[in-house]
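# step 3/5: fold
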Amino acid sequence: MNNDLLFDFNVDKKAKTVYITRQFNAAQSLVWDAFTKAELLDQWGAPAPMRAKTRYMEFKVGGRRVYAMVSPDGQERWAVQDFTAITPKTNFKMYNAFADKDENRELPGSEWDYHFSEKNGITKVDITIYNESFERLEKLLEGFKIGFNMTLKNLEDLLANLSRK
């Protein structure tokens, strides 16, 4: 594991925006796949001891992912992600909102913008999360940084395993 990899997390409350930058010791195409393929997302997309479970995912503009984070006792927290823009291997955008199991959204949600770039075998992912409401941002921040960092550690471990294959 490379401990020199960047993890930067900044919040601009006035702009209702979170900025995250994270580097991974893996090829950009593998990191892209990890963020855009359900079978890989389910392997890292929830903070332990929870796990991610995708009901379905159609990764295209206008497509959707519906998934749950499942606790060890089986409780499910559902979310809907609508893909709004995709530039293969370098960028995608989505609208994310928590929902019930029937996909009825809990408004407001947030807009996520992912940028991928690679230099010398290190892939950098820049994530911008714009929240429609300040109240949602405040709620999101309560445990989000810790949980999100835990999920990114899951991803780092998955990428290390996939890179060895």
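# step 4/5: annotate
Helices lie at 28-36, 38-44, 134-141, 144-164.
# step 5/5: archive (pending)
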